[in-house]
Structure formats: C-alpha cells, structure tokens
Specification:
With 320 residues, the protein is an alpha/beta fold. It has a single domain (11-318), classed as Aldolase class I (TIM Barrel). The chain has helices at 44-57, 75-83, 100-110, 124-131, 136-148, 163-170, 172-175, 199-210, 282-294; strands at residues 11-15, 61-65, 90-95, 114-118, 153-157, 180-183, 214-215, 226-229, 237-240, 253-256, 261-263, 271-273. A 12-stranded mixed sheet has the order 7-8-9-6-5-4-3-2-1-10-11-12. A hairpin with a 7-residue loop joins strand 11 and strand 12 (271-273). Bound molecules: S-adenosylmethionine and iron/sulfur cluster (SF4). The site of S-adenosylmethionine has 21 residues, from strand 3.
Length: 320
C-alpha cells in the first residue's frame, strides 16, 4: 500500500487491550482510567479477519501491543491465527515483560517471531517509582528466557530514570547479544508532564561510561531506530528519536486500536473506525483502509506543541 506521499505501508501495530498491570507515569494515571467495556474491544476473530484484509493490501509485519497485551486471555491463539495468514511474515509482541515468562512456551508454539521488552531501569525502587508496581526481576527473567529460547528480543527504554541507571541499563547490551533502545519521551497524554533525556544527552552519557559509539552497519529490523556499537558490547545501542531526529519521511506503519480504529499517525486522531464496517462484506473495509492510508499525514508536529486534531488519548489507549 502506498500513502499519499509515496511511502510504502507494510507494518501494522495492533493494540489488543487498553488494560495494563503497570501504571507507568508517562503512560497511564494510577487511578481513574475508564476501561473500555469488553463489548467495544475487537474480538480475536474480528482481528483475524482484519489481518487477512490488511495482508491482502500489503501488510507484512504485525506487532501486538496494548495496554499490556499479555493481560488479555488467550493471546497465543491470536498469534497463531495471524501467523497462518498468507503474506504475514512476522508477528511480534511489545510487552512490559512482567507476565511474559509463563506465557513464553505457548507464544513460541504459536510462532511468535520477536519480542520487544519495555524496561526503564534495573533498580527496583526506581522501577516502582516509574511503574507504581514491582517487576524488574520478573522482567529480566523473561528476557533471559527469550534469549535461551533463541527468540529475537530487544529492550526499549523511555529514559526517565537517573543517569547512572540508564548507563547500567545500556549495559544489558554488553553482557547479552541484544539491542537496547532509548525511545524519546513523546508529548502524548501523560508524557507531556515528564522530562525525558534527549538522544544527544544519552550519547554523551554512554560515551563517557563505555567509550566511543560507532555506527552499526548490520540490519536489525525495518523500524525507525538508528543503531550503534560500543567497545566490548555483544549487542547494540539504538535511539528512536521521534522529536529530535524526526523520521516521518520513512514511516511505514499504521495502528489499529483495541476498538478497531485505524490510526494513521501517532500524533493525530486521523484515520477511520473499521468496527462499524465489520458487519458487512470485505470490500467496503478495504476501500475504507485504502482511503485512510491515502490521507495519512505527512509528519507529526510534536515540536509545535498542541495541534488541531491532535491525539487526546493516553498512550496505553493507542499502543505506543
Ligand atoms: N505495555 C506494553 C509495553 O509497555 O511495552 C505495550 C504498550 S506501551 C504503550 C508501548 C510502548 O510505548 C512502551 O515501550 C512504552 O514505554 C512506550 N510509551 C508509553 N508512553 C510513552 C510516551 N509518552 N513516550 C514514549 N514512549 C511511550
Ligand atoms: Fe502499561 Fe506499557 Fe503503558 Fe507501562 S507503558 S503503563 S506497561 S501500557
């Protein structure tokens, strides 16, 4: 599928729930979130039908997200169903990792192709401050279980922890052959209220601790991350810097929310509600998807603060 600016769209992020077992400060408030009623959330068979339609239109990679995708019952079933669709080459998961270890065998049997684990610190006190819950040990256990199973795994960190803890977290890529990626805090929902570190700040922090960063020439997925090597590291350091190093010109993705809204840009509420069309045949759904993608915005304008039509949801309702 080509959008109105000639970009090829082949990557779909599907949010399977708005619920979560953590309460990261940049993503969700501690209390007062109104959960979507079950009746408004796409059923697995609806997601699979949409998956087949998206695959016919050119989607090749799917990532399941949330909220926390692993709080939804039976996720491996959905993974297996999506993997069976002609044309879909990858079905990966983005998770906070705290519930992953127990579900890993079923996910592997279902054919999961990769996992991104979100982890912002290795310090349990800071983890509790950021997420308002416990979880470092469980998350690290899950990470090592993925590695032992030979599953490709990446760590994603929103850099809001103290500097020395960010340095320590990057060290995961020293001892393990995994990329550790720093994601610039985005001014969406509660993200507007916190201060994250920029790529430039992180680069000088990591270079002081570990030595010079040199560009990594290998291939690690087709997303917006730029990868770097550090001396003596088995894995890589990545930066996903939507604000300071905008990458919209090469955007290849759209998002399907848990309620079936096809969202064509993270910053805006542009897109189309597909759920009302699920009662009918495939053709109008295909047309609606193609129209929405043709109108995908050129780029975000986070730097300008609030914009007309800007996203009013919190990140857990969008899927990151
Ligand atoms: N619960 C899962 C997790 O944490 O990986 C999946 C959903 S979460 C919304 C997806 C990603 O969005 C996580 O890596 C999270 O750190 C990131 N995220 C949430 N709010 C953000 C914000 N304001 N800016 C940047 N990233 C954010
Ligand atoms: Fe939950 Fe992920 Fe949001 Fe944290 S970032 S509150 S783990 S959905």
């Amino acid at each position: 599928m080509l959008d109105g600016f000639g970009r090829t769209i082949h990557y779909l992020r599907i949010s399977v729930t708005d619920r979560c077992n953590l309460r990261c400060r940049y993503c969700m408030p501690e209390e007062g979130v109104e959960w979507l009623p079950h009746g408004q959330i796409l059923r697995y068979e609806e997601i699979l039908r949409l998956g087949r339609i998206f695959a016919r239109l050119g989607i090749r990679r799917i990532r399941l997200t949330g909220g926390e995708p692993l709080v939804r019952q039976g996720l491996p079933e959905l993974v297996a169903g999506l993997r069976a669709i002609d044309g879909i080459r990858e079905v990966a998961l983005t998770t906070n990792g705290t519930l992953l270890k127990d579900q890993l065998p079923a996910l592997l049997r279902a054919g999961i192709t990769g996992v991104n684990i979100s982890l912002d610190t290795l310090n349990e006190d800071t983890f509790r401050k950021i997420t308002r819950r416990e979880g470092v040990a469980r998350t690290l256990d899950a990470l090592d279980a993925c590695l032992a199973a030979g599953l490709p795994v990446k760590v994603n960190c929103v850099p809001v922890a103290p500097e020395e803890e960010l340095v320590e977290l990057a060290g995961l890529a020293k001892d393990r052959p995994i990329p550790v990626r720093f994601i610039e805090l985005m001014p969406i929902g509660l993200g507007r209220e916190l201060h994250g570190r920029s790529e430039d700040e992180l680069r000088s922090l990591l270079q002081s601790a570990y030595g010079p960063l040199s560009p990594y020439s290998g291939h690690l997925g087709s997303g917006p991350s730029q990868y770097w090597s550090l001396p003596g590291f088995q894995g890589q350091i990545g930066f996903i810097s939507a604000l300071s190093h905008q990458f919209c010109h090469s955007c290849n993705r759209v998002r399907l929310t848990a309620t079936g809204f096809l969202k064509t840009c993270l910053q805006y509420d542009t897109g189309v509600a597909l759920r009302p069309l699920l009662d009918g045949p495939d053709e109008p759904l295909e047309q609606a998807i193609l129209r929405a993608i043709a109108e995908k915005p050129a780029c975000h304008q986070f730097a300008q603060g609030s914009v007309a039509g800007g996203e009013q949801h919190i990140m857990s309702q969008i899927g990151g």
